[in-house]
Amino acid sequence: MPANNVNWPLPLTRLNPFYPGQFGVPGTANETGLRQHSSGAIFYVDPNHVDNNDNRDGTDPTSPLSTVAAAILKCQPYRGDVIAVMANNSWQYGNSADGFATAISEEVIVTVPGIKIVGVCPSGQGVYWYPVSNAGVCITVHAIDVTIEGFFFSEGSFAGCTAIESEWDGATLFGENLTVRNCVFDDTVDIAIQLDYSWYCDIHDNIFWKCDTYGIYSPVAGSGIAFSRICDNDFHDCAIAISLLGGCDDNIIQRNTIYNSNAQTPAAATDEGIDTTGGARNMVSDNYFSCALPAPAAGDYDDLNTAAATDAWINNHCLNGDTTTNPT
To answer: What is the Cα gyration radius of the chain?
Structure first.
C-alpha cells in the first residue's frame, strides 16, 4: 500500500532499429525505436542534486530540474510524460548528515492532461511534499487523466495544508479521471483530498493519518463527484474520514478501514466516518469501522455514518459484527 509499491510506467528506452526499414511501409525504420508513446518523456526533479537547474530540459537524471512546477511546464498533453520526483531526507527523524534534506515545498497547478507525477522513494512513506504558505494547496488539479502517487504530504513549517485539490476551474479545465494512489497524508494535513466536480476518480491504497479536518472531501457548495472509486484506503482517526456532501452519485466505496477514537470509546462521532448525504446510488461495502452495530447510541454505526436514501451499504464490519443496513 505505501510508497514502496509505486509502479510508475516509464517510456521505453530509445533504441536503434535492429533491422532496416521495410520498403513502402512508413515508420518501420524509425530511429527512436519503440516506446510507451511516440514522443513521451521523463522529467526528473531533485532539489537535492548538486547539479539541479530549472533551465535544463530535465530529461537527464544527472542534471535534474529543481521544481515540479518547472517540470509541469515542460509536459505536453497526452504525450505519455512522467515527472519523476527523487527521494529526500526531510523526515523529522532523518539524519541531516546524510544530506538530501530539502523536501519538495511547492504549491503547483496542473493544467496538462494525461501526465503522471510520481515520487520515487525506497521507503514506505513516500517523497515528502510540503506547502509554501499557511493552509496552502500542494497540488491543484485542473486537468483530466492525471496520476499522483508516491508522496508523503505534510504541513512542514507552515500551519496546515490541503494536499490535493481536484476541481473544475469554472470554464474549460476539469479535474476528472484523477488517480491518487500509494500516498500518505499525515496529522498536520487539514484536507487530504478535495474533489469538486471531479468525476471518474480512482483513489486507492493511501494512508490518512489523523487528518485535521477531512480525509476525502466534496464540499456542499461544489458540484459533487460521481462514478468514482474510493477503495482499499486506511483512515486512522481523521476528524472526518470521507465526507461527500456536494451531490455524490454512483460511487463505489469499498474495503476501507476507518478507525475513530470517539466511536471506539464510545462517544459522539457524528458523521465522522462515511457521509454521503445528498447523494444517490452509492455502493458502500466491505468497509471496517471501529464502532458498534446500530444501538442507537453515541459512536455506533448510525452515529458514525450517514447514507443517502438510495445507497446500498452491504456487509460492512463493526466491532461486534457485520451489518447489511444503511446507516441513518
So the answer is: 22
